[in-house]
Amino acid sequence: MSWSIDASEIARMGAGFSSVAGRVPEIVEPGLQRAATKIRDKAKGNINHKTGKLGASGKVTKIGRMIYEVRFEAFNKGFNYASAVEFGRGPVRPINAKVLRFNVGGKTVFTKYAGPAPAQRFLGRVVDSADSILAPEIAKMETDIVRAIEASF
User: Fold this and answer.
1) CB 43 within 8 A of CB 121
2) Residue 50's pLDDT is what?
3) Cβ atoms within 10 Å, residue 13
4) pLDDT by residue (tens digit) across 21-78?
5) DSSP 87-129
6) Could you give the CA distance from residue 107 to residue 124 in angstroms, rounded to a whole number?
7) Which residues contact 33 (CB under 8 A, 6 or more apart)?
């Protein structure tokens, strides 16, 4: 009695995996970019719009191999107020003047004190619930990788 195994099919599968491994970034990059763009767009919808500058500042940037960043940067007199809106801020008092000046509803308002502002978490809320955005994109990436492996046989 004898027993044998033909490992050529396994070797062929291994070669298929190896040939696709180098293509994984090109296969998944579009899905990563789509997911980041969806996160940015959903975060824009969470912003309590006043001037529209903060929502318009949302950018998706590729910062590395298979790494995308969603960033909001809206400046007013050199201050990036995106983080103050996202995380909230403490009370504000004038430093180099006697009063603070704000434009509210087209009117100029002067005051000596502005109370704290609560966090809006316009981006954080989306990231916290990103599974609904990421799951379909990850499933598509997985399918594309499997198809590429199957095509290599």
Assistant:
1) no
2) 67
3) 13
4) 888 888 889 999 999 999 999 999 999 876 788 999 999 999 998 899 999 999 888 8
5) H-B--B--SSSSSEEEEETTEEEEES-B--B----TTHHHHHT
6) 32
7) 60, 62, 68
One-letter amino acid for residue 16 of the chain: G
Kindly report the number of other CB atoms within 10 A of residue 134's CB atom: 16
How many C-beta atoms lie closer than 10 Å to residue 31's C-beta? 19
What residue spans of the chain are helical by DSSP H? 8-21, 24-46, 53-56, 82-87, 124-128, 131-151
Residue with tokens 């009117």: 107
Q: What is the largest CA-CA distance in the chain?
A: 100
Helix (H) or strand (E) holding 57, with range, is none
User: Phi and psi (nearest 5°) for 7?
Assistant: -90, 5
**Cα–Cα distance for residue pair 45/49, rounded to 1 Å:** 9
Q: Count CB neighbours of 36 within 10 A.
A: 21
Q: How far apart (Å, rounded) are the C-alpha atoms in residues 97 and 8?
A: 80
Closest to 46 (Cα-Cα) out of 73, 86, 104, 90? 86
Report the distance separating Cα 137 and Cα 131, nearest Å. 10
| Dist CA 149 CA 20 (whole Å) | 6
CA distance 63 to 141: 20
